[in-house]
């Protein structure tokens, strides 16, 4: 018989299994937008009998992946899920019903779902069905995995991470403009893991002109996923011959501009398979908020900004950036080098832009600083 009482449970045990569910969820990073990453683990007699994660929007939810893997063994098991189970008929039937049907004894969940179709409803149905429910196990860790999904739900804008490789004096290029390479190999490998986990990369026209980057994901063992590449070029001055436009990728490549997408210059990009987004102007430049809205509309929740200083500066000034990943190399280039953050309009320390939750870790000979804005 199912217990109607709140479960008697051991916090350390619950966190142990939830951590494994979080590892499952993380496998979906960069692959599930506009949906969240979700992981699930089924435990019976102290052992994991099945696990699963959400692989792609529109496919089975993590809970159902784990339940299907367990089959009839799920009866009497505990379900650990990193997001509260849904209760709606969307592209798949409600997980709450599948959980009841399978005869799961207890459900442990981490994040609350901001989706109005879901919020609280699945958990309530489970409680009414006699399943013991424990919420908010490792909630902070789970919330951190789905920041892009949560922000998109709350604001209609994607989560924006600024990534830059800088010298110890905060420069992204030497006085000559040269920027290859600021950071070491370990940092550059890290960037490919970041690209694998985001939905889109955003760069300015100057970065394409100066660095001619590929902006694809190259992981040592292969298996990476390319993000959608979005180049901001207000007046469509770039040559379509740049690597980012000619290098094939399974992902889309986009140029965001003020120019007419039917015009001669735009047509050269279109002919190469590059999409042209005509975006509203702000002070004679592409309005970056409009670009981000379009990115969200395309179902992309997480954008990685890879330069240059102009783009970083505008995003910071307009409060459009959410997180910072700064790879700092142990070298100096001095005055004349290009500072990464661009013009912020700050006049005195009292008005300096402050970041939150600063953390650091060593990556090869470099230091990775991460913070929220
Ligand atoms: C997922 N995967 O593992 C869980 C989700 O697009 P639908 O119809 O599949 O519904 C998506 C919503 O379902 C999503 O926004 C979230 O609120 C909830 N849970 N979604 O894609 C999952 N558990
Ligand atoms: Zn579901």
TrEMBL record:
Its catalytic activity?
Answer: 5-amino-6-(5-phospho-D-ribitylamino)uracil + NADP(+) = 5-amino-6-(5-phospho-D-ribosylamino)uracil + NADPH + H(+); 2,5-diamino-6-hydroxy-4-(5-phosphoribosylamino)-pyrimidine + H2O + H(+) = 5-amino-6-(5-phospho-D-ribosylamino)uracil + NH4(+)
Free-text comment on the cofactor: Binds 1 zinc ion.
Recorded E.C. number(s)? 3.5.4.26, 1.1.1.193
The record's listing under Pfam families reads: dCMP_cyt_deam_1, RibD_C
Origin superkingdom: Bacteria
Q: In which pathway does it act?
A: Cofactor biosynthesis; riboflavin biosynthesis; 5-amino-6-(D-ribitylamino)uracil from GTP: step 3/4; Cofactor biosynthesis; riboflavin biosynthesis; 5-amino-6-(D-ribitylamino)uracil from GTP: step 2/4
InterPro entries hit by this protein? APOBEC/CMP_deaminase_Zn-bd (IPR016192), CMP_dCMP_dom (IPR002125), Cytidine_deaminase-like (IPR016193), DHFR-like_dom_sf (IPR024072), Eubact_RibD (IPR004794), RibD_C (IPR011549), RibDG_C (IPR002734), Riboflavin_Biosynth_HTPR (IPR050765)
Q: Which GO terms describe its biological process?
A: riboflavin biosynthetic process
Task: Note whether Hydrolase occurs among the keywords.
Answer: yes
Annotated residues for binding of substrate: 179, 195, 215, 218, 306
Give me the residues that bind NADP(+), please.
165, 181, 207, 211, 234
Question: Which residues does UniProt mark as catalytic?
Answer: 63
For this UniProt entry, which residues form the secretion signal? none
Needed cofactors: Zn(2+)
The record's comment on protein family reads: In the C-terminal section; belongs to the HTP reductase family.
Q: List the NCBIfam families hit by this protein, alphabetically.
A: eubact_ribD, ribD_Cterm
Q: Which PANTHER family match?
A: 2,5-DIAMINO-6-RIBOSYLAMINO-4(3H)-PYRIMIDINONE 5'-PHOSPHATE REDUCTASE, DIHYDROFOLATE REDUCTASE FAMILY PROTEIN (AFU_ORTHOLOGUE AFUA_8G06820)
Q: What is this protein called?
A: Riboflavin biosynthesis protein RibD
């Amino acid at each position: 018989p199912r217990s109607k009482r709140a479960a008697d449970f051991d916090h350390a045990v619950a966190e142990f299994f939830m951590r494994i569910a979080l590892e499952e969820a993380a496998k979906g990073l960069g692959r599930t937008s506009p949906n969240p990453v979700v992981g699930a683990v089924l435990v019976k007699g102290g052992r994991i009998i099945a696990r699963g994660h959400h692989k792609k929007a529109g496919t089975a939810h993590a809970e159902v992946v784990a339940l299907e893997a367990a089959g009839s063994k799920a009866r009497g098991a505990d379900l650990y899920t990193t997001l509260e189970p849904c209760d709606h008929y969307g592209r798949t039937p409600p997980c709450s019903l599948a959980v009841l049907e399978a005869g799961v004894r207890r459900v442990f969940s981490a994040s609350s779902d901001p989706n109005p179709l879901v919020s609280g409803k699945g958990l309530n149905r489970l409680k009414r069905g006699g399943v013991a429910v424990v919420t908010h196990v490792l909630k902070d860790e789970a919330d951190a995995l789905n920041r892009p999904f949560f922000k998109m739900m709350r604001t209609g804008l994607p989560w924006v991470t600024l990534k830059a490789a800088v010298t110890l004096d905060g420069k992204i290029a030497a006085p000559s403009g040269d920027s290859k390479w600021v950071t070491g190999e370990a940092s550059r490998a890290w960037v490919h893991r970041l690209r694998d986990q985001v939905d889109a990369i955003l760069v300015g026209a100057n970065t394409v002109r100066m660095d001619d980057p590929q902006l694809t994901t190259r992981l040592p063992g292969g298996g990476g996923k390319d993000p959608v590449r979005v180049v901001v070029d207000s007046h469509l001055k770039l040559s379509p011959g740049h690597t980012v436009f000619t290098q094939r990728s399974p992902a889309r490549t986009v140029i965001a501009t003020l120019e007419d997408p039917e015009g001669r210059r735009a047509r050269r990009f279109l002919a190469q398979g590059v999409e042209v987004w005509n975006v509203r102007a702000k002070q004679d430049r592409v309005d970056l908020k409009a670009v981000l809205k379009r990115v969200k509309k395309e179902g992309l929740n997480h954008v990685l900004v890879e330069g240059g200083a102009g783009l970083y500066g505008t995003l910071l000034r307009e409060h459009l950036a959410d997180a910072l990943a700064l790879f700092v190399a142990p070298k100096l280039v001095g005055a004349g080098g290009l500072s990464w953050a661009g013009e912020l309009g700050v006049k005195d320390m009292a008005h300096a832009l402050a970041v939150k939750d600063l953390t650091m870790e060593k990556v090869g000979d470099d230091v990775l600083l991460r913070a929220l804005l």
